[in-house]
Amino acid sequence: MFVVDSLFVLGKRKVKKMKKWKLGILVTLTTLLTVVGLFASQTTVKAASKTITVGTTAQTYPNSYRSNGKLTGFDIALTKAVAKKLGYKVKFKVIGDVPALLESVKSGKIDTVANAVTVNAERKKTYQFSNTFAYYAAQVAVPKDSSVKSLKDLEGKTVSATLGSSNIALLKAYDSKIKIKTYDDRNAIFTDANNGTVAGVLNQRQFLQQTIKKQNLNLRIVKGVAGWNNEAYPFQKSSEGTALKKKFNQALKELKADGTISKLSKQYYGEDVTKKSVDD
């Protein structure tokens, strides 16, 4: 009887040890799965952070436009080159106009803009900018049969301009006697100038040249430069914005040094916009 009892007690002890052993394995497996899950989650977050969202209008030829349904242009190509340098993927988000694009940067809906955004004092109050990578002269194109020869000849007359364009402030500072009519539709500013509804169209020289050529418009650029537009990437005034701006600056520096920006400029403009130049 004593032997049987002893065996029974030993059996219970073995069962308890087995239960503890199984419990230990279960706890270890649970911990391991938790760690793996956290790692996977962190990896996903890290991967997600490698994608930057960039706003554009897809209406600013030749900086941002659609060709056979595909988004292309100088700013689009350059942004892709910057992202490649940084090891990022780019997600482009089409937004109606420049004011809406900048507001989206401010609210954090997008990281930056690829749409010929230029730097001015007013914008600097709200945004921080990358280093300048392109220069555009603000000029006016008029109908070929117009008597206007220079900007001064436009005093008292009205020219069209895109809403929110930095060219507006430049022309106002240059000659406040020239009236400006703003449009939401970028195509309308050229249409109304071409048909004589307004005396001319205000824009960057390179945009004027390319649009006149592409649309075969009856327009010519008059002598005189209202000012210079310095193009740069805008960023939110935050620690995240500052960090991304520094990365963009480094990538832009490398892309300028290896000739990429100049090459893309000549591809889309037929000239090097990394330097100030104008045919007067």
TrEMBL record:
Transmembrane segments: none annotated. It holds the Pfam family SBP_bac_3. Residues 51-272 form the Solute-binding protein family 3/N-terminal domain. It comes from the Bacteria. Keywords: Signal. This is Solute-binding protein family 3/N-terminal domain-containing protein. Signal peptide: none annotated. InterPro entries: Solute-binding_3/MltF_N (IPR001638). It comes from Limosilactobacillus gastricus DSM 16045. PANTHER family: AMINO-ACID-BINDING PROTEIN YXEM-RELATED, MEMBRANE-BOUND LYTIC MUREIN TRANSGLYCOSYLASE F. The keyword Cell division does not apply.
